Amino acid sequence: MEQRLSLITLGVADLDRSRAFYADGLGWTPSTLGSGEVVFFQAAGVVFGLYGRAALAADAGLPDSDGAGFRGVALAYNTRTRDEVDAVLALAERAGARITKPAEEAFWGGYSGYFADPDGHLWEVAWNPGMEIDAAGHVSLPPDP
Question: Is residue 93 within 8 Å of 24, Cβ to Cβ?
Fold first, then answer.
């Protein structure tokens, strides 16, 4: 298996509400691909998808659950500047997100905070001075020592 990630799909309770949050609220451009049952966004080198939670659970052969509380997963959006962290968190909150942790200096030398989208999916917004983001939005780890 190649070391890469192709698609991240979030199971959502209300596809229209989630589409509006990401497209209208955060300003992401949805793809014209897909059906009325799934929404895709090109996110640098990864495709980000929204799909009905019950349908996604059924597709995976699992029962649906409410997913309350911490789910053991956090998505991350890295910024190019420290100030952009605060701006993105404010944008997410205006769009309907709940700030779970306001931005603060991080133990690893950066600056980060967290929000939960309308379905409770956790996002970290972080500025990491040791991580480069190219013009296309691709994040690269520093070389191994």
Answer: no
Q: Residue 98: give the domain boundaries.
A: 71-130
Q: How many domains does the chain have?
A: 2
Q: Which two tokens stand for residue 108?
A: 């690893």
DSSP 8-state assignment for residue 30 = B
Taken in order 29, 35, 38, 44, the sign of the CA dihedral is negative
Residues 15 and 47 placed together within one structural domain of the fold = yes
pLDDT tens-digit map of 56-80: 988 888 888 776 777 778 999 999 9
**Is the Cβ–Cβ distance between 101 and 8 less than 8 Å?**
no
Residues 40 and 87 in one domain: no
